[in-house]
Amino acid sequence: MIFDLETYLIQPIQGKDAWKLCDFITINSHRLNRFFPNTLKQNLTPTLSEIFVAHKLKQFALKEEFLFTLNDLEKRTIIGLIYIKELNWPSKQGELAYCIGYQYEGKGWVTKSVDIISNYAFTQLNLTSLQIIVHKSNVASVRVAEKCGYIWKRTLPKKFAPPNETSLDMELYELIA
């Protein structure tokens, strides 16, 4: 499935995406270092990105995790990522995580993409609950969650430890189908 939004596409990760993904990650490494450290370290070279993409394709096929890319149609580049992860099939719950390149922030593309992927998770994967876990300092991400109808539920004490930092309290937002 591909979601065509005229200026950009949302599509599942593809085998041919490794080089584009490596470019996106390295260009935005300063943005991704704090909250996407694993994705960053797994995509620092084209070879690492090839391994990463192969693993994500396998996870997609096994319904363990779903990675979607946001692709600029004009420039033919990856401009962002959206994960459906931490899937709990018995409880029909998953978590969304997302990022966008610095050149594309503030255009509303992440909000639109989160809406679309949330709908996909509910209608195609039959999930009934989605979560977004975000640090309160990431105001743009909090706004995306709220604009997409996710409701703040609680603070998760010491939920996430960015590289070389102490564990941070994170905010849990949830959307019910």
Overview of the molecule:
By secondary structure, this protein is an alpha+beta fold. It has one domain: Gcn5-related N-acetyltransferase (GNAT) (Aminopeptidase). Helices cover 33% and strands 33% of the residues. The chain contains six helices and eight strands; from the N terminus they run ββααααβββαβαββ. The protein has an eight-stranded mixed sheet with strand order 1-2-3-4-5-6-8-7, sandwiched between helices. Helix 5 links the parallel strand 5 and strand 6. The longest helix is centred in the first third of the chain and has 16 residues. The radius of gyration is 15 Å and the shape is globular.
How does the major sheet shape up? Answer: 8 strands, mixed
Uncertain stretches: none
**Under CATH, the topology is which?**
Aminopeptidase
State the secondary-structure class: alpha+beta
Strand order of the largest sheet: 1-2-3-4-5-6-8-7
- Number of structurally distinct domains: 1
Specify the CATH architecture: 3-Layer(aba) Sandwich
Q: CATH-wise, what's the superfamily?
A: Gcn5-related N-acetyltransferase (GNAT)
Looking at the structure, what is the overall shape? globular
How many helices in DSSP terms? 6
CATH class: Alpha Beta
The total strand number stands at 8
Written as H for each helix and E for each strand, in order along the chain, the element string is: EEHHHHEEEHEHEE
Q: What portion of residues belong to β-strands? A: 25-35%
The end-to-end span amounts to 21 Å
Task: Evaluate the radius of gyration.
Answer: 15 Å
Instruction: Report the average pLDDT across residues.
Output: 96
